[in-house]
Amino acid sequence: MKIIMLCCLGLSFTLPAEASSCLKGQPCGNIQKSANHQLQSSAASQKANRKKLYRGAGNYLVTAKRLNVRGDNLLDGRPVGQLEYGENIYVYRFSHGWAMITFKNEVAWVSGRYLRYQQSEL
């Protein structure tokens, strides 16, 4: 019984708030469509920004203060060292957000989130 009353009270608070957001002379559905359009355009711009990021082999700059280097491309992989902010590294490939590099002549992995591509100057 108490649950039903709380649901009813919750709905009674929600409905007037929605009604007060409608502009005079416009149905409330237009506002919802406008909000959906804004969400869709925001998602499309984020997708376009992701496409601009180059995620292939090449030279990259470390953007984290300290970046853990791991033996495996998992968070549980044991850290084998660290890279400092501003260091240049060569990435051989990316896999599920992890960048494969060599560290102390061994294959190692770092999070690709903290790398910025550096175009090579020919």
UniProtKB/TrEMBL annotation:
Hydrolase found in the keyword field: no
GTP-binding found in the keyword field: no
Keywords: Signal
Domain SH3b: 57-118
InterPro entries in the record: SH3-like_bac-type
Residues of the signal peptide: 1-19
Pfam families with a match to the protein in the record: SH3_3
Top-level lineage group: Bacteria
Name of protein: SH3 domain-containing protein
Species the sequence originates in: Vibrio mangrovi
